[in-house]
Structure prediction request, 154 residues.
Amino acid sequence: MKNAFEQVYGAPFLARLMFAEIGSSPKEDLFLCLDYDGSISSDGPTAGARQRFAVLSATKTSGELMEKFLQQNHVTDAPLPEAIAIAADSWSIGRMAMGETAIKELPERDAVRKHRDEQLANGGIEAAVLERDAKSGIRYRILSEDELRSSLQG
Prediction:
């Protein structure tokens, strides 16, 4: 990666990156988003109100719609199956905003679920969760296909 940015004559890399660090308590958690233009947004330990989620998307509109959906539906201490369903619905909204009939406003919940189910029928999702109480230094766990599918059945 470093070499790609040092190359003067090569094609530039465009990247949007999200970093998450899980602390020993929720107050110490950190989200950091770095955009290809160098802008940084963070949700770190500050005195102000905190947004407990972050999104990455290919377009500004899809990212804004995903964020609006999460502002209305995100629950910090949600059980894992509920959190997976909310994340998958947010992902589906982002996909709908970039599709052939790109949406400009949040769709109804039934339309989101229908789109999500259609997309997942033809593909899969890779996902992981951060676990504060992990027994090892590695604080993430890759979710199994069964765990993901069973969370999305409701």
